[in-house]
Amino acid sequence: MKIAICDDDKSAREVLKTCCGRFAAEFQIDCQVAEYASGEELLRDSSSDVLLLDVEMPGMA
């Protein structure tokens, strides 16, 4: 499973990545987690199965 985390806050991305890793280990799921600091960066690589998105980011109305 490919998971994408998009958040402008690096610490929030790290917490979510850790949670995803623990979940994958507990349920024996092969999981790859990619981190993105912006929506534009995420759109360049749209090959994820699951998206975890920040709802308040700079430049978004």
TrEMBL record:
SUPFAM superfamilies: CheY-like
Coiled-coil region(s): none
Residues bearing the modification 4-aspartylphosphate: 54
One Pfam family per UniProt: Response_reg
PROSITE patterns, per the entry: RESPONSE_REGULATORY
Domain Response regulatory: start-end pairs: 2-61
InterPro entries linked to this entry: CheY-like_superfamily, Sig_transdc_resp-reg_receiver
UniProt entry keywords in alphabetical sequence: Phosphoprotein
UniProt cross-references to Gene3D superfamilies, sorted A to Z: 3.40.50.2300
Biological processes per GO annotation: phosphorelay signal transduction system
Role description: May play the central regulatory role in sporulation. It may be an element of the effector pathway responsible for the activation of sporulation genes in response to nutritional stress. Spo0A may act in concert with spo0H (a sigma factor) to control the expression of some genes that are critical to the sporulation process.
Protein name: Stage 0 sporulation protein A homolog
Organism of this sequence: Roseburia zhanii
